[in-house]
Amino acid sequence: MNPRLLLVTGSLVLSVLIGTVIARSGSTGTGPARPTAATRPLIGLSLDTLKEERWQKDRDRFVAAAEKLGAIVLDVAANSDDTRQIQDVESLISNGVDVLVIVPHDGAAMARGVAAANKAGIPVISYDRLITGADLDLYLSFDNVKVGALQARYLVDKLPGGKGRIVRIYGSKTDNNAKLFKEGQDSVLQPLIEKGDIQVVFEDWALDWKMENAKKIVNAAITAHGKDIQGVLASNDGTAGGAIQALLEEGLAGQVLVTGQDAELAACQRILRGQQTMTVYKPLQRLADTAAAMAVKMARREVIVANGTVDNGFEQVPSVLNDIIAVDRDNMMETVVKDGFHSADSLQ
To answer: Is position 124 within any domain?
Structure first.
């Protein structure tokens, strides 16, 4: 158990869930003096990348929410480079941040950065992607196993008779979330694969979630097995975009079901054009707002409530997991548009 935390199990309500109270005491490390209620907390935000629209939105919303709560945010992005991200974290520690919020490129590699923060007495929040093998203070994300299951169930339900030949595109092997998405997908698909209803004709991991790598996977699938494909189970909207590029080249776009995740603007536009079938909408504004509020509370050593725990291979990490929604043409206006995530005009 993290020595910087006093954990008390209790019946406190957060979003109608039973939670764990995390009561923070003063630092026992050698880091900078901790803020009082009258000071402005300094939050370090270390991002894997800002190349994807999704992470730009997270960063902007988090910074705005934290500043509204009186905090100052130092944010850096590592361009999917583990060495650089560790250096970013060490630099934020040297700058005397009161709390670290990290979106890791490689969850296992970032254990080194968490160890450095532990030594300095600085609490760490793992944001959306789980940092593994480390003494974390809090994990904020969505139920990522459920995300994968939702993608697979939607795909199967849309296949004629629940049967077909599919291509599976996993995310980056360095991202623990990609493994959780696959776990959820497997929970739905494996019984159907064993029955022979679903045939996975090709599958591979898309390095760094890059669109061009996803395109190569679909190109390779078509080269090896032909055009008789009914679905592409893509783990996020970026890889879905790469898959659709390959399908466009083969004259198959709109004829093959394609899943996604993150409700990126380009993906929502593709859904309305009939090229992509669905995406998983994760209310990122809620995630960023929650992360900002908890980071400020953690910096000020105030009480925090979590709604569960997640095993990161080192400990059961206090966690807050938010709900998700499957989005297609039928409910886009009442979900991503109603929430203000995208405007109706931007989807045209």
So the answer is: yes
CA distance 178 to 102: 17
67 falls within a domain? yes
Residue 75, beta-bridge partner list: 45
- Residue (of 45, 85, 36, 86) closest to 64 by Cα position: 45
The domain in which residue 218 lies consists of 144-261
How many independent structural domains does the chain possess? 2
- Give pLDDT, residue 197: 98
Q: Which helix H or strand E contains 166, and what residues bound it?
A: strand 164-170
Count of helices and strands (H, E) across the chain: 9, 16
| Strand 279-281 versus strand 325-327 pairing type | antiparallel
Bridge partners for 44 per DSSP = 74, 100
Same-domain status, 101 and 118? yes
Let me know: does 103 contact 79? Beta carbons within 8 Å.
no
Can you give the pLDDT at residue 285? 87
H runs (alpha helix) in 196-335? 211-225, 237-249, 265-273, 284-299
Overall size of the chain counted in residues: 348
- Burial label for 48, CB within 10 Å (0-12, 13-18, 19+), is buried
Residue 208 is classified by DSSP as G
**pLDDT in the model for residue 24:** 32
Q: What is the 3-state secondary structure (H, E, C) of 192-214?
A: HHHHCCEEEEEEEECHHHCHHHH
Q: Which two tokens stand for residue 189?
A: 């698909």
Q: Report, as ranges of residue numbers, the positions in the chain whose pLDDT lies below 70.
A: 1-38
Q: How far apart are CA 208 and CA 219, in angstroms?
A: 18
Containing 14, the helix (H) or strand (E) segment is strand 5-14
- DSSP code of residue 96: T
pTM of the model: 0.76
